[in-house]
Amino acid sequence: MTPSEHYPAPRLFLDGEWTDGTSGRRQPVLNPATGRVIGEVPHASAADLDRAVAAAARAFPAWAALGAGGRGPILHRAEALIRERAAEIARIATLEQGKPVAESRAEVMRAAGTLSYYAEEARRAYGRIIPGDPGTLLTVRHAPVGPVAAFVPWNFPAGGPLRKLSPALAAGCTLVIKYSEETPATACAIIRALEVAGLPPGVVNLVFGDPPMISQTLIADPRIRMVAFTGSVPVGKQIAGLAAQVMKPSLMELGGHAPVIVCADADPVLAARRSAAGKFANAGQVCTAPSRFLVHETLFDRFAEAVVAEARALRVGNGLADGVTMGPMANPRRIEAMERMVADALARGARLLTGGKRIGNEGFFFEPTVLADVPPEAEIMQVEPFGPVAPLRRFADLDAAMAEANATPYGLAAYGFTRSAATAERLVAGFEAGILSINHTGGSVHEAPSGGVKESGHGREGGPEGLHSYLYAKRVSHRLE
Ligand code: NAD
């Protein structure tokens, strides 16, 4: 093993202690670039989960009482530590998730910024004084909801946990966080930075294990007051159902199947270049990835040619190697899904413009793929691909394209390319989605909310809305005489 393949052993973090837990069970962690086992992650037992929840409940009153001003310095210090350690954390993220190490590093740096953004935003969680009856002081104040059970998937090993941890901690909540068993060591590195920065024991507890057992146990526990989940729509429905049974608020960041409408007045080459950047980032394993391309018929051939050129220019390989611009899929399930969706589209009459198959048999690599004239009934037009496959369709009428864009149960992201401000506003008004981008496919920012409508979920992460997801309003009416 070369030094760059050293993989730190992932552990549970319970009440301020790193431990392998008491279940005796473990599961292997694979490097998706080789398919080989690089480590093992311990599974939490029911007793470990109880310890985690007890710690989060015990730590909550003091953490909440610190106030935003008391919590902020710890979050700022953790951010500085994560930035200092970014190269090492990025290397670990690439080893276990696969994305190019430059992409991992950019993710670590960007995600670290959520800590300071929320440390400051929490200082602005203003209440209000409502004038009216002079004998009664009527105010609205915001209080942290309490201990949170958070569930985070594998596609953003650093960004995923920090999108939950930063607003929840800044708001004054404590957490039990179940992170993906497939990419566990990045979360350990991030939580280690919080620990070194001075986070009191019990404020954050990290668990891995059997996902249904953990979610059922944590959500049913009366000491847990809120549920935050990122993942697929089917699992999100199960989690939201469990939360509903015990009337707990839930924040659901689920899948998407983002349409891209390329209007007749757009620059087809620029639209293709920017669409491809969004499509193939993280090998397409992004909930907001552009994933259904509806292109005006007058531009279709030029757009398709330019997307194909972008796809062929990608250098697919081990994310730790120099010059690689697209890594492997994170797990073999994605390879199977890509093979199935491509075969289904071709069987229904789509044309393969480039790619279409697995690369080699070591690791989980799939060719950047472009399909043209994919019929709307193909699986890839209905179900989010979560992989590096771009299905293209042509349209003649913008209203029909909008109707098609909205014709799935998803409503997360949507993209449009046009040089007309009026057409852009028509797209913005018409798209049924929570995250809209015009003339680019750039990612999320700390200052603004992200989240979906329809089956893509409810609640928001990012911006002041993301902080308020972890706060509840108290109306206080105080008779002065
Ligand atoms: P999956 O739905 O089985 O798992 C997704 C995540 O949910 C994993 O981290 C898993 O550990 C967790 N999970 C699964 N069952 C759970 C349960 N009962 N309780 C708590 N957590 C549970 O799917 P997968 O094969 O890992 O990923 C593929 C699909 O997941 C993709 O097609 C995509 O739709 C979705 N996904 C979405 C995001 C996102 O950012 N919204 C991220 C990763 C995966």
Structure description:
The protein has about 475 residues and is of the alpha/beta class. The chain has two domains: about 10-255 and about 455-475, Aldehyde Dehydrogenase, Chain A, domain 1; about 260-440, Aldehyde Dehydrogenase, Chain A, domain 2. It has 15 helices and 22 strands. The strands form six sheets. A seven-stranded mixed beta sheet has the order 14-17-18-13-12-19-20, sandwiched between helices. A six-stranded mixed beta sheet has the order 9-8-7-10-11-21, with helices on both faces. A three-stranded antiparallel beta sheet has the order 5-6-22, with no helix packed on it. Helix 9 (about 270-280) links the parallel strand 12 and strand 13 (about 290-295). Helix 2 runs antiparallel to helix 5 (about 160-170) and helix 4 (about 100-120) packs parallel to helix 5 (about 160-170). The radius of gyration is 23 Å and the shape is globular. The model has no long low-confidence stretch (mean pLDDT about 95). Belongs to the aldehyde dehydrogenase family. Keywords: Oxidoreductase.
Broad CATH class of the largest domain: Alpha Beta
Beta-strand percentage range = 15-25%
Helix fraction by DSSP (H/I, runs of at least 4): 25-40%
Q: Which regions are unreliable across 5 or more consecutive residues at pLDDT < 50?
A: none
Sheet/helix structural class: alpha/beta
CATH H-level homologous superfamily name of the largest domain: Aldehyde Dehydrogenase, Chain A, domain 1
The end-to-end span amounts to: 76 Å
If you average the pLDDT, what whole number results? 97
Largest sheet: 7 strands, mixed
* Radius of gyration over C-alpha positions, nearest whole angstrom: 23 Å
